[in-house]
């Protein structure tokens, strides 16, 4: 597989394209959440639960992944259970802890909702070499670390732009 020539782009242009993609993603997540009858935060948590597959997450694990408090995640899990998307089960290694697993039928419905989009992204990735895909994957991983650091500053109030705050 050979990569094809691509037009030059600056970091600023790449960030602008990322901003466009993120904005579309936010709208898309809102619409999918609405379709599934849950909110966006719950959908985000459900995505992590689904991604865990045969290694179910604890509430604490999930809180760390989505940058929420464990108390907030408890509310998310209550709503996901009530909606039939997930359930808690005892941790076989430590009966004091619980793990969260997706309901298999609900998981199939969620996956069916996303699969056409993932198929389209697969076609896009097919136009890149393995080395190019490695760069893309590395960038997203590193950008996620920077996003977590930025969110910590936002949540601390350090970046509050409102006067007098």
Please characterize this protein's 3D structure.
67% of the residues lie in helices and 10% in strands. The chain is mainly alpha-helical and 165 residues long. Strands 1-3-2 form a three-stranded antiparallel beta sheet. The longest helix has 27 residues, at 130-156. The N and C termini lie far apart (54 Å).
Break the fold down into its secondary structure elements and pairings.
Elements: H1 11-36, H2 40-52, E1 57-58, H3 59-66, H4 70-83, E2 86-91, E3 94-102, H5 104-125, H6 130-156
Antiparallel strand pairs: 1-3, 2-3
Strand order of the largest sheet: 1-3-2
**Structural class given helices, strands, pairing?**
mainly alpha
Mean pLDDT: 92
From the N-terminal CA to the C-terminal CA, the straight-line distance is 54 Å
Count of helix runs: 6
User: pLDDT under 50 segments (min length 5)?
Assistant: none
Largest pleated sheet: 3 strands, antiparallel
Order of helices and strands: HHEHHEEHH
Provide the β-strand percentage band.
Answer: 5-15%
Radius of gyration: 19 Å
Number of strands: 3
Shape, please? globular
Helix amount? 55-70%
Brief overview, please?
The chain has 6 helices and 3 strands, in the order ααβααββαα.
Key traits:
mainly alpha, 165 residues, 3-stranded antiparallel beta sheet, single chain
């Amino acid at each position: 597989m050979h990569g094809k020539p691509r037009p030059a782009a600056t970091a600023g242009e790449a960030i602008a394209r990322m901003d466009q993609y993120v904005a579309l993603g936010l709208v898309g997540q809102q619409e999918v959440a609405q379709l599934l009858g849950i909110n966006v935060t719950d959908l985000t948590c459900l995505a992590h639960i689904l991604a865990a597959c045969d290694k179910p997450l604890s509430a604490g694990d999930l809180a760390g992944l989505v940058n929420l408090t464990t108390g907030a995640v408890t509310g998310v899990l209550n709503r996901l259970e009530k909606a039939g998307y997930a359930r808690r089960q005892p941790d076989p290694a430590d009966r004091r802890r619980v793990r969260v697993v997706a309901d298999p039928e609900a998981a199939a419905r969620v996956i069916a909702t996303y699969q056409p989009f993932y198929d389209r992204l697969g076609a896009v990735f097919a136009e890149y070499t393995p080395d190019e895909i490695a760069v893309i994957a590395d960038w997203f991983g590193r950008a996620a670390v920077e996003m977590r650091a930025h969110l910590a500053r936002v949540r601390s109030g350090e970046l509050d732009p409102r006067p007098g705050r």
